[in-house]
Design a protein that fits this description.
single chain; alpha+beta; 2 domains; eight-stranded antiparallel beta sheet; 4 helices; globular
């Protein structure tokens, strides 16, 4: 006889951050969530004084964290994403896996971070840098007709660190783009989690990423699921 999973008690209003994160971890560990799909992009609102990547990059990409699919050097594609869900009361977004890079087989590695992105400032025919850099990239299987890749630096994109923790803060989050999975079928179009300020808690949505383990949590604000079509 199967035993029903005991519902995880929700923290009271005004609970400490540590209690909220523990609640989210318990929901994920016990499978008490509604699965949404594959998170592909987190869009941040650029605030005055916020730390951002180089203007030449953000002017084209925007201020965001992106899980860009990589071309495998031997052919095929490495699918980069983070599976996400929502809490039983549909008031919290849950990251179901840590923010870790993937290897050439698509498996998660111990390295915390995001996949590289094609350099948006590159134009066909431009040099990739020095001869040694060019040769090193070609030796790894990159096509010289493709743009070189640039790193998404979590430290540059983060707003601050939560005191006494390893959590980098990315805020405010305004949109989360994800590829929904309905009845175990991955959909072809992306849906949006539209995030906004929550007057009741006086918080904006933020994404927290542990810079040591990659553990990720969405905290504060409110959101609504916006389907395509």
């Amino acid at each position: 006889m199967s035993t029903a999973v005991q519902a995880v008690p929700r923290p009271n209003a005004g609970a400490a951050l540590a209690d909220i994160l523990a609640y989210q971890r318990a929901l994920v560990d016990t499978g008490q969530y509604e699965y949404l799909g594959r998170m592909k992009r987190v869009v941040l609102e650029a605030e005055e004084g916020a730390r951002t990547q180089a203007a030449a990059v953000t002017s084209k990409l925007g201020h965001c964290l992106e899980w860009y699919d990589q071309r495998h050097p031997k052919g095929g594609t490495i699918r980069n994403y983070v599976p996400i869900g929502q809490s039983p009361d549909r008031k919290m977004i849950l990251a179901l896996e840590p923010i870790l890079k993937r290897d050439l087989l698509g498996r998660l590695t111990p390295e915390v971070g995001l996949p590289d992105l094609p350099d948006p400032t590159w134009k066909p025919g431009q040099a990739w840098g020095s001869t040694s850099e060019y040769e090193a990239l070609v030796a790894k299987g990159f096509n010289p007709l493709d743009p070189p890749m640039v790193a998404q630096n979590l430290n540059q994109l983060s707003d601050k660190i939560v005191a006494g923790t390893n959590f980098l803060v990315f805020q405010p989050v305004v949109q989360v783009l994800f590829q929904p999975e309905i009845n175990q079928v991955l959909q072809a179009t992306y849906w949006t989690l539209l995030c906004s300020y929550d007057a009741a808690t006086q918080t904006h949505p933020a994404l927290l990423i542990d810079r040591v383990t990659g553990a990720a949590h969405f905290y504060g604000g409110k959101f609504e699921v916006v389907p395509v079509g």
